[in-house]
Design brief:
alpha+beta; about 325 residues; Rossmann fold; 2 domains; 9 helices; single chain; about 30% strand
Length: about 325
């Protein structure tokens, strides 16, 4: 049995990610994270594996080594350019057991099913029914899933399908680009659940979990973002933020006033908003609010206190539950 480490020694990563003819592929993940997910996937020789998110083709090349000559890999990407180039690079290296297709991965790929293993390098809004239906009994899915209906709040889940039902075995810190119905152009803007965005004078955006209460003009979202950008009260949190721990804790509160924002292109923030108040804490530990006595700021301080009292729990310490939602499953974490 070939290990992921052994496969990585034989696959030239930069040949895929920085190909001299195609150029650098921005749609790529840290190779160490790819190795982690593939180790969790537990691929054996002869297996039928599907991946969603071809990207540079590097992960597909690793899977090719893991399944061996008698196994097969199906690689899907919504971006036809990426899928076609990956196929060409595979062929140039003599890789014959990987098929690349431009397709919406959230529907799976029924013509090559059933699959022993499934891995996703993109995040669907829910665990799709098609993924579960296309797995063999006892098959394993490793995929990022949202834990709240706002961007960038995800974990990577290991899911085992038994008797047609998915069960979460474990979760780990991580997340990947959102699965979208067309190729994503702006990699700095979330592909889902953005309730308002500004492009001038600088890019900024906000996602409010209470979007169903907003009006058609997105007045609530616009107002909340404005309150955080214009003459906001600021104060330091005073401690370094463990961002994966904090965002997982905030999501587990299941508060419908939960808010995620990108106030600058490279800085995320999490907090609480209403139609009249707003308060968030950024990744650098800066707290912003509409006023020093803001009710949202009081709520945010309470959340942070609960998080500290809980010992800043790691994502893996939460209890994961898949909740059936129509033809899909919603992942929620609790303590």
């Amino acid at each position: 049995m070939t290990t992921v480490a052994e496969a990585a020694e034989t696959v030239p990563e930069r040949h895929y990610t920085h190909h001299e003819e195609r150029g650098v592929t921005p749609h790529r993940s840290n190779p160490l994270v790819i190795h982690r997910e593939l180790t969790t996937l537990d691929v054996h020789e002869g297996m039928n594996v599907v991946e969603f998110g071809t990207g540079s083709g590097y992960s597909g090349a690793l899977l090719s080594q893991l399944v061996g000559r008698v196994g097969q890999v199906t690689s899907l990407d919504i971006d036809a350019y990426l899928a076609r180039w990956a196929a060409v690079i595979h062929q140039g290296r003599g890789v014959r057991n990987v098929e690349c297709h431009d397709s919406d991965g959230t529907a799976g790929f029924a013509s090559r099913a059933p699959y022993d293993r499934m891995v996703a390098w993109c995040t669907p809004p829910l665990l799709p029914r098609a993924w579960v239906d296309q797995m063999v009994d006892g098959g394993i899915i490793v995929a990022p899933l949202p834990i709240a209906a706002v961007p960038n709040m995800t974990v990577v889940a290991k899911i085992v399908v038994r008797d047609g039902q998915p069960e979460v075995e474990s979760v780990a810190t991580g997340g990947y680009i959102e699965a979208t119905t067309s190729p994503k152009g702006d990699l700095d803007l979330p592909g889902r659940w953005v309730d308002w965005e500004n492009r001038i004078p600088a890019p900024s955006w906000i996602s409010i979990a209470w979007r169903d209460e907003d009006d058609q003009m997105r007045t609530g979202a616009r107002t909340a973002l404005d309150r955080l950008l214009k003459n906001a009260h600021t104060e330091p949190y005073g401690q370094e933020i463990d961002w994966p721990s904090w965002r997982t804790f905030a999501a587990s509160l299941t508060d419908h006033r939960l808010t995620m924002a990108g106030l600058t292109p490279d800085m995320w923030a999490i907090g609480h908003t209403t139609t009249t108040t707003a308060a968030v804490i950024q990744q650098d530990g800066t707290i912003l609010a509409d006023a020093p006595d803001s009710p949202s700021l009081t709520v945010l301080r309470g959340w942070l206190k609960q998080w500290e009292e809980a010992g800043r729990p790691a994502p893996a310490t939460y209890t994961p539950t898949l909740v059936r939602t129509g033809d899909s499953w919603d992942l929620r974490l609790s303590r």
